[in-house]
Amino acid sequence: MSESNQLSSDFLKDLKNRRTCILYEFLRNKNEEETLIEMAKTGFEVEDEDVRKEVYLLFRRFKRGRLGVEMETLEKLLEMEPAESLNDLVPKEFDFKDKSCFFRTQLKRLPKAKIIKEIEIYANADFPVGVMIGIHQNDSRECVYYHKCNNGVVVRYLRNIKHLVSNNLNYQDVALDDVYNFLNEWMQQRESIEFLKIRADYMEAEFYKKLDSKFRELLKDKNFVRKLNVGNLHSKFTTCLDMASIFKCEEMRIEMNALKEDASEYLKQLFEKNELKTKLFTISTSQKISESMKDKYKNVIGDEFRDFLVKYEENEIVFTKKEMKPSTSKQSTSGSSCGGCFSKQTDSGPSSPK
What mean pLDDT is reported for the chain? Predict the structure, then answer.
Protein backbone atom coordinates (compact mmCIF):
# COMPACT_ATOMS: atom_id res chain seq x y z
CA MET A 1 0.00 0.00 0.00
CA SER A 2 1.34 3.47 -0.87
CA GLU A 3 2.07 5.94 1.91
CA SER A 4 -0.82 8.17 0.83
CA ASN A 5 -3.24 5.24 0.83
CA GLN A 6 -2.01 4.17 4.24
CA LEU A 7 -2.69 7.64 5.61
CA SER A 8 -6.17 7.62 4.06
CA SER A 9 -6.87 4.17 5.45
CA ASP A 10 -5.79 5.25 8.93
CA PHE A 11 -7.93 8.37 8.56
CA LEU A 12 -11.03 6.24 8.04
CA LYS A 13 -10.32 4.16 11.13
CA ASP A 14 -11.37 7.15 13.20
CA LEU A 15 -15.12 6.95 13.84
CA LYS A 16 -15.85 10.65 13.28
CA ASN A 17 -13.77 10.83 10.11
CA ARG A 18 -15.37 7.70 8.68
CA ARG A 19 -18.93 8.77 9.46
CA THR A 20 -18.25 12.24 8.00
CA CYS A 21 -16.98 10.68 4.77
CA ILE A 22 -20.01 8.39 4.55
CA LEU A 23 -22.32 11.40 4.93
CA TYR A 24 -20.29 13.27 2.31
CA GLU A 25 -20.73 10.42 -0.20
CA PHE A 26 -24.48 10.37 0.49
CA LEU A 27 -24.66 14.12 -0.18
CA ARG A 28 -22.80 13.51 -3.46
CA ASN A 29 -25.69 11.24 -4.48
CA LYS A 30 -23.55 8.11 -4.21
CA ASN A 31 -25.19 4.86 -3.16
CA GLU A 32 -23.98 2.39 -0.56
CA GLU A 33 -21.86 0.29 -2.91
CA GLU A 34 -20.23 3.33 -4.50
CA THR A 35 -19.40 4.60 -1.03
CA LEU A 36 -17.78 1.29 -0.13
CA ILE A 37 -15.76 1.49 -3.34
CA GLU A 38 -14.44 4.92 -2.39
CA MET A 39 -13.50 3.63 1.05
CA ALA A 40 -11.82 0.57 -0.44
CA LYS A 41 -9.71 2.71 -2.76
CA THR A 42 -7.88 4.01 0.29
CA GLY A 43 -6.98 0.49 1.38
CA PHE A 44 -9.58 0.50 4.15
CA GLU A 45 -11.00 -2.97 4.79
CA VAL A 46 -14.57 -2.99 3.49
CA GLU A 47 -15.14 -6.74 3.43
CA ASP A 48 -15.79 -6.69 7.15
CA GLU A 49 -19.48 -7.29 7.78
CA ASP A 50 -19.73 -4.50 10.35
CA VAL A 51 -18.30 -1.93 7.94
CA ARG A 52 -20.90 -2.82 5.34
CA LYS A 53 -23.69 -2.77 7.93
CA GLU A 54 -22.51 0.64 9.08
CA VAL A 55 -22.67 2.13 5.59
CA TYR A 56 -26.08 0.66 4.78
CA LEU A 57 -27.52 1.61 8.18
CA LEU A 58 -26.28 5.20 7.99
CA PHE A 59 -27.67 5.56 4.47
CA ARG A 60 -31.02 4.31 5.75
CA ARG A 61 -30.99 6.98 8.46
CA PHE A 62 -29.91 9.69 6.02
CA LYS A 63 -32.81 8.82 3.72
CA ARG A 64 -35.16 9.35 6.66
CA GLY A 65 -33.80 12.87 7.07
CA ARG A 66 -31.43 12.06 9.93
CA LEU A 67 -28.54 13.97 8.36
CA GLY A 68 -25.60 14.35 10.69
CA VAL A 69 -22.43 12.69 11.89
CA GLU A 70 -23.61 9.93 14.22
CA MET A 71 -21.15 9.23 17.04
CA GLU A 72 -22.98 6.28 18.58
CA THR A 73 -21.36 2.87 18.19
CA LEU A 74 -22.68 0.57 15.49
CA GLU A 75 -24.11 -1.74 18.16
CA LYS A 76 -26.06 1.15 19.68
CA LEU A 77 -27.36 2.28 16.28
CA LEU A 78 -28.50 -1.26 15.47
CA GLU A 79 -30.34 -1.48 18.79
CA MET A 80 -32.29 1.64 17.84
CA GLU A 81 -33.61 -0.05 14.67
CA PRO A 82 -36.57 -2.45 14.58
CA ALA A 83 -35.10 -5.96 14.64
CA GLU A 84 -37.10 -7.17 11.66
CA SER A 85 -35.82 -4.31 9.50
CA LEU A 86 -32.24 -5.54 9.84
CA ASN A 87 -32.80 -8.83 8.04
CA ASP A 88 -32.31 -7.29 4.61
CA LEU A 89 -30.05 -4.43 5.62
CA VAL A 90 -27.18 -5.53 3.35
CA PRO A 91 -28.28 -7.01 -0.01
CA LYS A 92 -27.29 -10.64 -0.26
CA GLU A 93 -25.85 -10.36 -3.78
CA PHE A 94 -23.20 -7.92 -2.61
CA ASP A 95 -22.12 -9.96 0.39
CA PHE A 96 -18.33 -10.22 0.17
CA LYS A 97 -18.36 -13.17 2.55
CA ASP A 98 -20.15 -15.37 0.03
CA LYS A 99 -17.79 -15.57 -2.93
CA SER A 100 -20.26 -17.63 -4.95
CA CYS A 101 -23.20 -15.34 -4.40
CA PHE A 102 -22.63 -12.39 -6.71
CA PHE A 103 -22.68 -14.14 -10.05
CA ARG A 104 -25.47 -16.55 -9.28
CA THR A 105 -27.89 -13.99 -7.90
CA GLN A 106 -27.25 -11.60 -10.78
CA LEU A 107 -28.04 -14.34 -13.30
CA LYS A 108 -31.26 -15.23 -11.52
CA ARG A 109 -32.39 -11.62 -11.67
CA LEU A 110 -32.41 -11.62 -15.46
CA PRO A 111 -35.94 -11.46 -16.87
CA LYS A 112 -36.85 -14.88 -18.23
CA ALA A 113 -38.52 -13.42 -21.29
CA LYS A 114 -35.49 -11.47 -22.48
CA ILE A 115 -33.36 -12.70 -25.36
CA ILE A 116 -29.64 -13.01 -24.87
CA LYS A 117 -28.10 -10.99 -27.66
CA GLU A 118 -24.42 -11.23 -26.79
CA ILE A 119 -22.19 -13.12 -24.41
CA GLU A 120 -18.58 -12.21 -23.78
CA ILE A 121 -16.16 -14.36 -21.79
CA TYR A 122 -13.11 -12.31 -20.92
CA ALA A 123 -9.69 -12.77 -19.34
CA ASN A 124 -6.91 -10.26 -19.83
CA ALA A 125 -3.51 -9.55 -18.33
CA ASP A 126 -4.51 -5.94 -17.78
CA PHE A 127 -7.33 -7.04 -15.48
CA PRO A 128 -7.66 -9.80 -12.90
CA VAL A 129 -8.74 -13.14 -14.31
CA GLY A 130 -12.47 -13.11 -14.77
CA VAL A 131 -15.54 -14.09 -16.66
CA MET A 132 -17.91 -11.60 -18.18
CA ILE A 133 -21.19 -12.25 -19.91
CA GLY A 134 -22.89 -9.45 -21.77
CA ILE A 135 -26.62 -9.73 -22.05
CA HIS A 136 -28.93 -7.74 -24.28
CA GLN A 137 -31.36 -6.34 -21.76
CA ASN A 138 -33.85 -4.21 -23.68
CA ASP A 139 -34.02 -1.30 -26.08
CA SER A 140 -33.55 1.42 -23.49
CA ARG A 141 -30.52 3.67 -23.79
CA GLU A 142 -28.97 2.87 -20.43
CA CYS A 143 -28.06 -0.30 -18.61
CA VAL A 144 -25.64 -1.01 -15.82
CA TYR A 145 -22.25 -2.64 -16.14
CA TYR A 146 -20.83 -4.29 -13.04
CA HIS A 147 -17.10 -4.81 -12.69
CA LYS A 148 -16.54 -6.92 -9.60
CA CYS A 149 -13.09 -6.91 -8.08
CA ASN A 150 -11.42 -7.10 -4.69
CA ASN A 151 -12.39 -3.60 -3.68
CA GLY A 152 -16.00 -3.48 -4.72
CA VAL A 153 -18.36 -3.02 -7.61
CA VAL A 154 -17.67 -0.33 -10.17
CA VAL A 155 -20.74 0.88 -12.00
CA ARG A 156 -20.68 2.33 -15.50
CA TYR A 157 -23.59 3.15 -17.78
CA LEU A 158 -23.57 1.58 -21.23
CA ARG A 159 -26.18 1.29 -23.94
CA ASN A 160 -28.29 -1.82 -24.36
CA ILE A 161 -25.91 -4.25 -22.68
CA LYS A 162 -25.86 -5.49 -19.14
CA HIS A 163 -22.50 -6.99 -18.25
CA LEU A 164 -22.11 -9.30 -15.30
CA VAL A 165 -18.51 -9.63 -14.34
CA SER A 166 -16.45 -11.60 -11.86
CA ASN A 167 -12.90 -10.31 -11.80
CA ASN A 168 -11.38 -11.93 -8.76
CA LEU A 169 -9.10 -14.92 -9.34
CA ASN A 170 -11.10 -16.84 -6.73
CA TYR A 171 -14.29 -16.30 -8.70
CA GLN A 172 -13.21 -18.00 -11.93
CA ASP A 173 -14.44 -21.51 -11.21
CA VAL A 174 -17.59 -20.24 -9.54
CA ALA A 175 -18.38 -17.96 -12.47
CA LEU A 176 -17.80 -20.68 -15.05
CA ASP A 177 -20.00 -23.08 -13.10
CA ASP A 178 -22.77 -20.53 -12.87
CA VAL A 179 -22.54 -19.57 -16.53
CA TYR A 180 -22.65 -23.24 -17.46
CA ASN A 181 -25.71 -23.94 -15.33
CA PHE A 182 -27.42 -20.80 -16.55
CA LEU A 183 -26.79 -21.61 -20.23
CA ASN A 184 -27.78 -25.22 -19.77
CA GLU A 185 -31.15 -24.16 -18.37
CA TRP A 186 -31.52 -21.31 -20.86
CA MET A 187 -30.82 -23.48 -23.93
CA GLN A 188 -33.63 -25.85 -23.04
CA GLN A 189 -36.27 -23.18 -23.48
CA ARG A 190 -34.80 -20.48 -25.74
CA GLU A 191 -33.15 -19.95 -29.10
CA SER A 192 -29.45 -19.47 -29.73
CA ILE A 193 -27.63 -16.23 -29.05
CA GLU A 194 -26.55 -13.85 -31.77
CA PHE A 195 -22.94 -13.27 -30.82
CA LEU A 196 -20.30 -14.80 -28.55
CA LYS A 197 -16.93 -13.22 -27.93
CA ILE A 198 -14.12 -14.96 -26.06
CA ARG A 199 -11.11 -12.92 -24.96
CA ALA A 200 -8.04 -14.23 -23.14
CA ASP A 201 -4.47 -12.97 -23.08
CA TYR A 202 -1.44 -14.50 -21.39
CA MET A 203 -3.28 -16.74 -18.94
CA GLU A 204 -5.23 -18.40 -21.75
CA ALA A 205 -3.82 -21.90 -21.20
CA GLU A 206 -5.67 -22.38 -17.91
CA PHE A 207 -8.65 -20.28 -18.92
CA TYR A 208 -9.26 -22.00 -22.26
CA LYS A 209 -8.76 -25.40 -20.71
CA LYS A 210 -11.52 -24.71 -18.20
CA LEU A 211 -13.82 -23.35 -20.89
CA ASP A 212 -13.16 -26.36 -23.09
CA SER A 213 -13.84 -28.93 -20.38
CA LYS A 214 -16.90 -27.05 -19.18
CA PHE A 215 -18.65 -26.22 -22.44
CA ARG A 216 -17.58 -28.63 -25.19
CA GLU A 217 -20.03 -31.40 -24.32
CA LEU A 218 -22.82 -28.96 -23.45
CA LEU A 219 -22.60 -27.22 -26.83
CA LYS A 220 -21.73 -30.24 -28.97
CA ASP A 221 -23.57 -30.08 -32.32
CA LYS A 222 -25.88 -27.34 -31.04
CA ASN A 223 -26.53 -24.15 -32.98
CA PHE A 224 -25.96 -22.14 -29.84
CA VAL A 225 -24.13 -19.21 -31.41
CA ARG A 226 -24.70 -17.49 -34.74
CA LYS A 227 -21.45 -15.48 -34.69
CA LEU A 228 -18.29 -16.39 -32.78
CA ASN A 229 -15.29 -14.17 -32.16
CA VAL A 230 -12.19 -15.60 -30.45
CA GLY A 231 -9.65 -12.89 -29.76
CA ASN A 232 -6.19 -13.33 -28.34
CA LEU A 233 -3.28 -11.06 -29.07
CA HIS A 234 -0.67 -13.40 -27.67
CA SER A 235 -2.01 -16.93 -27.78
CA LYS A 236 -0.98 -19.63 -30.22
CA PHE A 237 -3.21 -19.87 -33.26
CA THR A 238 -3.80 -23.57 -32.57
CA THR A 239 -5.13 -22.66 -29.11
CA CYS A 240 -7.67 -20.31 -30.67
CA LEU A 241 -8.63 -22.98 -33.20
CA ASP A 242 -9.28 -25.48 -30.41
CA MET A 243 -11.53 -22.95 -28.70
CA ALA A 244 -13.43 -22.19 -31.91
CA SER A 245 -13.99 -25.89 -32.57
CA ILE A 246 -16.23 -26.13 -29.49
CA PHE A 247 -18.96 -24.19 -31.25
CA LYS A 248 -21.21 -24.76 -34.22
CA CYS A 249 -22.12 -21.43 -35.78
CA GLU A 250 -22.61 -19.59 -39.04
CA GLU A 251 -19.63 -17.27 -38.70
CA MET A 252 -16.32 -17.65 -36.87
CA ARG A 253 -13.59 -15.07 -36.52
CA ILE A 254 -10.21 -15.40 -34.80
CA GLU A 255 -8.48 -12.09 -34.06
CA MET A 256 -4.77 -12.04 -33.27
CA ASN A 257 -1.94 -9.55 -33.06
CA ALA A 258 0.12 -11.49 -35.62
CA LEU A 259 0.01 -14.87 -37.31
CA LYS A 260 3.41 -16.21 -36.25
CA GLU A 261 2.60 -19.89 -36.13
CA ASP A 262 2.32 -22.13 -39.17
CA ALA A 263 -0.79 -24.08 -38.22
CA SER A 264 -1.88 -24.73 -41.79
CA GLU A 265 -1.74 -28.53 -41.42
CA TYR A 266 -3.72 -28.38 -38.18
CA LEU A 267 -6.30 -26.06 -39.74
CA LYS A 268 -6.60 -28.38 -42.72
CA GLN A 269 -7.24 -31.35 -40.41
CA LEU A 270 -10.00 -29.46 -38.58
CA PHE A 271 -11.78 -28.71 -41.84
CA GLU A 272 -11.32 -32.29 -43.07
CA LYS A 273 -12.84 -33.67 -39.86
CA ASN A 274 -15.59 -31.04 -39.95
CA GLU A 275 -14.41 -29.77 -36.55
CA LEU A 276 -14.92 -26.17 -37.62
CA LYS A 277 -18.68 -26.19 -38.12
CA THR A 278 -19.20 -22.89 -39.89
CA LYS A 279 -19.99 -21.24 -43.21
CA LEU A 280 -17.60 -18.33 -42.86
CA PHE A 281 -14.22 -18.55 -41.11
CA THR A 282 -11.87 -15.57 -40.84
CA ILE A 283 -8.34 -15.30 -39.45
CA SER A 284 -7.76 -11.60 -38.76
CA THR A 285 -4.50 -10.00 -37.58
CA SER A 286 -3.68 -6.45 -36.52
CA GLN A 287 -0.23 -6.81 -38.11
CA LYS A 288 0.23 -7.55 -41.78
CA ILE A 289 0.45 -11.26 -42.60
CA SER A 290 3.86 -11.93 -44.14
CA GLU A 291 4.04 -13.22 -47.70
CA SER A 292 6.02 -16.26 -46.52
CA MET A 293 3.25 -17.15 -44.05
CA LYS A 294 0.61 -16.76 -46.76
CA ASP A 295 2.65 -19.03 -49.02
CA LYS A 296 2.78 -21.71 -46.32
CA TYR A 297 -1.01 -21.69 -46.03
CA LYS A 298 -1.49 -21.59 -49.81
CA ASN A 299 0.82 -24.58 -50.28
CA VAL A 300 -1.18 -26.68 -47.80
CA ILE A 301 -4.72 -25.39 -48.30
CA GLY A 302 -4.71 -23.65 -51.67
CA ASP A 303 -7.30 -21.19 -52.98
CA GLU A 304 -10.11 -23.72 -52.68
CA PHE A 305 -10.47 -26.47 -50.12
CA ARG A 306 -13.39 -28.91 -49.88
CA ASP A 307 -16.54 -26.75 -49.77
CA PHE A 308 -14.66 -23.51 -49.11
CA LEU A 309 -13.17 -20.75 -51.21
CA VAL A 310 -10.04 -19.31 -49.60
CA LYS A 311 -8.99 -15.68 -49.97
CA TYR A 312 -5.63 -14.35 -48.74
CA GLU A 313 -5.60 -10.66 -47.86
CA GLU A 314 -3.15 -8.29 -46.16
CA ASN A 315 -4.55 -8.84 -42.68
CA GLU A 316 -6.96 -11.72 -43.20
CA ILE A 317 -7.33 -15.23 -44.49
CA VAL A 318 -10.99 -15.88 -45.25
CA PHE A 319 -12.69 -19.25 -45.77
CA THR A 320 -16.13 -18.87 -47.35
CA LYS A 321 -18.58 -21.68 -47.97
CA LYS A 322 -19.30 -21.77 -51.68
CA GLU A 323 -22.97 -20.87 -51.33
CA MET A 324 -22.02 -17.68 -49.43
CA LYS A 325 -20.61 -14.42 -50.79
CA PRO A 326 -17.07 -13.63 -49.55
CA SER A 327 -17.95 -9.97 -49.10
CA THR A 328 -19.71 -10.72 -45.79
CA SER A 329 -16.48 -11.62 -43.98
CA LYS A 330 -15.58 -8.21 -42.61
CA GLN A 331 -19.10 -7.71 -41.30
CA SER A 332 -19.09 -10.88 -39.25
CA THR A 333 -18.39 -9.54 -35.80
CA SER A 334 -17.26 -5.95 -36.11
CA GLY A 335 -18.94 -3.20 -34.18
CA SER A 336 -20.22 -5.29 -31.32
CA SER A 337 -21.16 -3.13 -28.38
CA CYS A 338 -19.67 -5.79 -26.14
CA GLY A 339 -16.16 -5.69 -27.56
CA GLY A 340 -14.90 -2.26 -26.55
CA CYS A 341 -16.12 -1.92 -23.02
CA PHE A 342 -12.72 -2.56 -21.42
CA SER A 343 -10.52 -0.77 -23.91
CA LYS A 344 -12.53 2.40 -24.40
CA GLN A 345 -16.04 3.76 -24.09
CA THR A 346 -17.92 5.55 -26.81
CA ASP A 347 -21.31 7.11 -26.26
CA SER A 348 -21.47 5.25 -23.01
CA GLY A 349 -22.88 7.79 -20.65
CA PRO A 350 -21.33 8.67 -17.28
CA SER A 351 -17.94 7.22 -16.47
CA SER A 352 -17.37 4.92 -13.54
CA PRO A 353 -17.13 6.31 -10.02
CA LYS A 354 -13.69 7.68 -9.24
Answer: 66
